[in-house]
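FORM 7B: Structural annotation worksheet

SECTION A. Query
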Amino acid sequence: MFVPFENLPDSSRVWIYQANRSFTDQEQEEIQEKLQEFIESWTAHGADLKASYEIRYKRFIILGLDQEMNAATGCSIDASVKFIQQLEKDYGVDLLDKMNVSYKQGDFVAYKTLTDFRKMAKDRAVSPKTIVFNNLVNNKAEYLSDWEVPASESWHIRFLN
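SECTION B. Predicted structure
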């Protein structure tokens, strides 16, 4: 059951998938339609899931699930991962590799491998003030407050010391 993202409670579980490139406007429209269809049919043991999504910066897909109504199960999580894998194939994009870092350079969102980010930190091309995306947040409240933060307030700080 699709609901607007802003209507999900702060306790809702979130999954963040970052793309290795920006989506085109047309891709973003198509992906939104596919997300809407997926969420409308997403269930856990036959029970509807109250869920939503956002696409941010033409690069991040955020799935949100209100677990107060029905919690995600192994099968429903598997279904969402399979859906994301299909998006990867359909658009030639990487969404599941967690060994990459996205950060802001002015208004631009940059994407680097962890190795490259570590080298940039060593070379002082990024700093503790660099805005990074902490895709490890667990719920909507954390997503709203701790997703887009200075590297000094995220797990990324380990590369900057």
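SECTION C. Observations
The chain has a mean pLDDT of 94. The first helix runs from residue 25 to 41.

SECTION D. Sign-off
Analyst initials: ____
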